[in-house]
């Protein structure tokens, strides 16, 4: 049982890693962009994780851990911020090749505005739930910056691909939060979340995951563009 979290990390990344070398995908050729992106994003989320763990917003069940820790976090939790983004950015890389048609610019803009408004209102209404508030305000801020300052052109494609990613997300995050297990690998303080769950998954995790993957992709695409400019 103590290898449960480690095995979840392993099985999340092993197939994307193997197929990174497929000649039609060649994801490994983008590693120079991916690794700086995942390290920078990981630092942000690990700092967040360390703080929330220290104040009891969430914690970890020792029966599913090997026992090694870094910054008072299980080593499996540190690996989570590499394995999950790797699998998700790889999936984006693959689907980006094949998806040619997405939402229109108008529909994307309406959806983005509505999502930002809902996140801000949700954060304001849930000010007593620190996980909800930080997640909703954080994601709304990232979307505002991406949409109106960076003016990225791939938001519509991101929404579609993240919707696809929600299916494996439910499997992986479901296991971490206790679906099919005697106890959750990661537990949440009920006083700091809304209490709405998808199976055993707090609804906040959907938006937390969106922010995690979106920041990784923002930096990943920035470093790819930087690499391409240097090669000219």
From TrEMBL:
<dbReference type="InterPro" id="IPR017825">
    <property type="entry name" value="Lycopene_cyclase_dom"/>
</dbReference>
<protein>
    <submittedName>
        <fullName>Lycopene cyclase domain-containing protein</fullName>
    </submittedName>
</protein>
<keyword id="KW-0413">Isomerase</keyword>
<feature type="domain" description="Lycopene cyclase">
    <location>
        <begin position="129"/>
        <end position="223"/>
    </location>
</feature>
<dbReference type="GO" id="GO:0016117">
    <property type="term" value="P:carotenoid biosynthetic process"/>
</dbReference>
<dbReference type="GO" id="GO:0045436">
    <property type="term" value="F:lycopene beta cyclase activity"/>
</dbReference>
<keyword id="KW-0125">Carotenoid biosynthesis</keyword>
<feature type="transmembrane region" description="Helical">
    <location>
        <begin position="206"/>
        <end position="224"/>
    </location>
</feature>
<feature type="transmembrane region" description="Helical">
    <location>
        <begin position="6"/>
        <end position="22"/>
    </location>
</feature>
<dbReference type="GO" id="GO:0016020">
    <property type="term" value="C:membrane"/>
</dbReference>
<feature type="transmembrane region" description="Helical">
    <location>
        <begin position="34"/>
        <end position="58"/>
    </location>
</feature>
<dbReference type="GO" id="GO:0016872">
    <property type="term" value="F:intramolecular lyase activity"/>
</dbReference>
<keyword id="KW-0472">Membrane</keyword>
<feature type="transmembrane region" description="Helical">
    <location>
        <begin position="107"/>
        <end position="124"/>
    </location>
</feature>
<keyword id="KW-1133">Transmembrane helix</keyword>
<keyword id="KW-0812">Transmembrane</keyword>
<comment type="pathway">
    <text>Carotenoid biosynthesis.</text>
</comment>
<feature type="transmembrane region" description="Helical">
    <location>
        <begin position="78"/>
        <end position="95"/>
    </location>
</feature>
<dbReference type="Pfam" id="PF18916">
    <property type="entry name" value="Lycopene_cyc"/>
</dbReference>
<feature type="domain" description="Lycopene cyclase">
    <location>
        <begin position="3"/>
        <end position="95"/>
    </location>
</feature>
<feature type="transmembrane region" description="Helical">
    <location>
        <begin position="130"/>
        <end position="150"/>
    </location>
</feature>
<feature type="transmembrane region" description="Helical">
    <location>
        <begin position="159"/>
        <end position="181"/>
    </location>
</feature>
């Amino acid at each position: 049982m103590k290898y449960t979290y480690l095995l979840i990390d392993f099985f999340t990344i092993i197939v994307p890693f193997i197929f990174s070398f497929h000649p039609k995908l060649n994801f490994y050729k983008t590693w120079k962009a991916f690794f700086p992106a995942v390290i920078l994003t990981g630092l942000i989320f690990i700092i967040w994780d360390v703080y929330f763990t220290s104040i009891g917003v969430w914690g970890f069940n020792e029966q599913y851990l090997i026992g090694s820790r870094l910054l008072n976090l299980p080593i499996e939790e540190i690996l989570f911020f590499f394995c999950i983004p790797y699998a998700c950015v790889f999936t984006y890389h693959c689907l980006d090749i094949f998806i040619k048609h997405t939402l229109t610019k108008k529909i994307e803009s309406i959806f983005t505005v509505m999502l930002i408004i809902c996140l801000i209102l949700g954060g304001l209404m849930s000010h007593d739930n620190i996980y909800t508030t930080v997640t909703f305000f954080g994601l709304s801020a990232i979307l505002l910056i991406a949409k109106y300052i960076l003016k990225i052109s791939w938001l519509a494609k991101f929404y579609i691909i993240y919707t696809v990613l929600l299916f494996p997300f439910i499997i992986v995050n479901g296991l971490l939060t206790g679906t099919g297990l005697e106890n959750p690998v990661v537990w949440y303080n009920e006083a700091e979340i809304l209490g709405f769950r998808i199976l055993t998954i707090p609804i906040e995790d959907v938006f937390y995951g969106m922010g995690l993957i979106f920041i990784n992709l923002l930096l990943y695409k920035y470093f790819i563009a930087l690499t391409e400019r240097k090669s000219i």
